Amino acid sequence: MTLHVIAVIFSIATFSSAAKSSDCEGGDCEFELTPHEQSSNAGYFSVEWNSLTTNQSEDEQVLLDSAYEAPKYLQLATNEGFSPELQLLDIGYQDKIHLTGYDDGTYFLRLLDEQQNVLSNVASVTVAHHSYKRVWLVFGIGAVMFVILIGYMISRAFRSKETSTED
Questions:
Q1: Domain 2-129 sits in which CATH superfamily?
Q2: How far apart are CA 100 and CA 122, in angstroms?
Q3: Among residues 24, 106, 121, 16, which one has the least CA distance to residue 68?
């Protein structure tokens, strides 16, 4: 009886993974891709994903793990149609990634398997860097603070020499 149940569960898992659509529409995705922040003002962002099939019993999960299609690539594009493709990153079966060095704009991301079948929803992140005005303002404040600190240290050094020579 147990072997029959295992065979049925394995058949269901096999047919459901074979029947999934290539564009992962209608909530049939195996993974949920979620960015940590929807907008970034520093040019970097993090995304992570988790399997949507993790609420099975332990025996069912072992069978699903054997037929499990782990994400192999993270696809980035500047439009939801992913044409033209901006980047195809080999994520090496990770469950999160930190990306940096992106210009201003909206980026769309999704997970693909080795055969480049879509495994996740489409997530988007908007990058809008700080303005140059703000960057120069912060840099200027830092430079002024640095000059004040150096001036204070030099004045303290001269004062300590004066008091030590008077004794």
A1: Immunoglobulins (2.60.40.10)
A2: 19
A3: 16
